[in-house]
Write a structure and sequence with these properties.
heterodimer; A: 188 residues; mainly alpha; AhpD-like; B: 184 residues
Amino acid sequence: MPHIKVNEDLPGIRALLAFSPSTAAPIGELADLLLRSNEGLSMAERELIATYVSYLNDCFYCHHSHGEIAVCYLDGDRATVDQVRNDYTQANIPAKLKALLNIAGHAQKGGKYVTAEDVAFAKSEGATDKDIHDTVLITALFCMFNRYVDGLAANTPKDLSTYPARAKQIAEKGYGSHVYTQPAPVAV
Amino acid sequence: MAHIDLQNDLPGIRGPMLYSPATAKPLNALAEVLLRDDNNSLSRGEREFIGTYVSYLNDCFFCQNVHGALAGHYLDCNIEQIDGIKRDFLQADKLSDKMKALLPIAASVQKSGKHVTAEQIEAAKTAGATDKEIHDTVLIAAAFCMYNRYVDGLATWAPQDRQFYVNRAPSRAAEGYVDFDLSK
């Protein structure tokens, strides 16, 4: 049960956004800017970073939600998304993304855990300054989202079959106020 | 030296914000609503102190000094007093019992969302905290876990003279987080 009284019909962060629309607006804008861009990193790569960080933070709602969105962008390749969670070094993803996931894993612990060696390695694998900037900020953003969701004990659907429909909605419409002003879709 | 070429030499979060103005806009808009909006039953000083305390726990020098100076400005404390409250907020005369019940929630959020306990929430409600105050405490703490990682994850530099932050606090308090010149 959530720690505060929120709309029980909305799952996860959606109920928190509905509780506080004034903070939901910049939060939605940040998610849209950082996750719905193909500049440098693809939308799929951005969602994989978000999934990995949420998995490290043990946020069930976020890592399954963003994992399913990544599955949408990867044309149904759930095996790759699962492999990124379990051991990204063995996943079928570009070497550059592996080097960026290394940075994300360190920034998840704390900003100071990102070393000059981590950054030099990512650059040697072809990461640009913008790729590194976006990786650090996506990681930081999910360290916020994960804490927001679990810190208020938001409702977390345990049934994984409910996640694809919401993921499809985000893949089609992006982030924004529609995720809490409209009922969450329940079927693909 | 920062991990990437930020194309400017501004300190702390202002470096990456000028580098990436598109994301700076909602980052600042979120800070404005959470920390400065007057439609809130927690004072600006109380909210800045929550940000300061989480930044202290995250060992982010730039953020804990910027926001510590702002908290001091609003709460009429000098920097040594703010340091004392960071070390032991339970003994602080400047903080209400409600704040003393909200800060443990912020400290749990700093570790991870799952560290917040039903007992902490109950204690905050008993001390008079509303659902919105609990929501804002959790989101301020979570937001500083983001800002702190942005600042230190890119290895931005920070002025080491803490008086720098104290001197800037009155104008930063007046300008707010939205309508200000990043480069000044």
